[in-house]
Amino acid sequence: MACVYYPPDNGTLQSVLGFVDCQARTIGEQGYLALAAPGSVASLALTSLLTLFVALIGYRMLLGEIPGMRDGVMALVKIGAVLALASGWPAYRTLIYDVALDAPAELAAAIGGPAGVPGSTGGLVARMDGLDRGFEALAIEGPGPAPDPTVQQVAPPMFGGFDTFAIGASRTTFLVGALGSFAGLRLLGGLLLALGPLFVGFLLFDATRGLFVGWLRALAGTVLGVVATSVALGVELALLEPWLSDLLARRVAQVPIPGAPAQLLAVTIVFGLVLLAMIGGVARVAWALRLPEGARTSLRERFERSDSAERSSTDRRTMPAAIDGRSRASVIVDAVTAAQRREATAGAAGVGSGAASASPGSVTIRQSINSTAGPVSPQGAPSRRRASVRVSASARRRDFNA
Fold first, then answer.
1. Which of 296, 311, 341 is the last residue of a domain?
2. 23, 78, 286, 356: which could form a disulfide with 361 (CB 3.0–4.6 Å)?
3. CA nearest 386: which of 337, 350, 349, 347?
């Protein structure tokens, strides 16, 4: 729908701001519908992002990283939110479009209404047009003749005709401040709303989430900026309306107003700077917007958690094998030691039996074997069992006769 510009017969501000507001709403709505339409650039980009998001989850599962309950729920919530906001105009209009364009007036009324700020409950643009017509009437009347310096002590103007110039400059400064702030914020909001389907898709990934957060910050900044502009212009109206009415009444009565034009110019310049400061302040507040850190897990944390789980499972698998390997080595060492001791004991028994007398040798041989067995362990634990050699009586007699 094309916006129609009406001639500024009823007021410059009403005509210009009405046209700009219509353009901002049209750009936001029609731009969104164009980008969200099937086959558009934003729609294809959104489809690619969703496909990549689901594919990455599948690859993580193939690599052994099974998403937990929390990760699965968050993934489903993100997919649902992206699809609802990037492809559904009713949801987008209710949650974002209407809030961005209609909330500033409601917030300004809630803040300025109890404080009695002019125009906060409605009719702000109409009252600004009335102030503009007052500047115009004062410029027509002029500052009046210069007073006689011998009768009235008045500071001379900066240059000839400065008072007439100051009245016109005051009106220009007022119009530039009001039109520039409102028009700039409205058009910026409309452009951001039109780009919504593209930026909403960036919510899926941690690496691109900053683009979505930046878009949300800028949109919040436009909302707060319009609120701040409405309040600041309302305060300016509260100051300039009665002052300008008094100056016009004095000029109608043919009373000169020396010095007043310079004061008007200074006040309008100051309020122009106030508008810039307030817009910058609310933009700084909007820039501090952060998504909750608990709602996301970085890729590095996921990889570290996966690596630590893999290392722990590998350690659990290799630990029993290492224990079994050490046990087998101990068994082999014990078997070799026992065999060596048996051989040494058998040799010692043969030598002892050749040198023994005819007296019963069995006792001597047993004592020799017992002496080589070693003492009992000092901790009270039983010593290792050692093999003993049994020698028959006929063998002893044969060895003795030999």
1. 296
2. 356
3. 337
Distance CA 37, CA 1 (A): 18
Q: Which of 50-64, 79-93, 352-366, 383-397 is predicted least confidently?
A: 352-366
Query: Distance (Å, rounded) from C-alpha 252 to C-alpha 264?
Result: 18
Q: Contact 229/275 with Cβ under 8 angstroms?
A: yes
Q: What length is written for the chain?
A: 402
Report pTM. 0.68
Q: Cα–chain-centroid distance for residue 113?
A: 35
**Do residue 283 and residue 321 come from a single domain?**
no
Tokens of residue 268, six digits:
């309008």
Domain containing residue 353:
303-372+386-401
Radius of gyration of the chain (CA): 48
Cα 273 from chain centroid? 32
Mean pLDDT value across residues 313-320: 53
Instruction: Write out the two tokens for 230.
Output: 């409405």
Number of domains in the chain: 2
CB 239, CB 145: distance < 8 Å: no
Tokens of 398: 């044969």
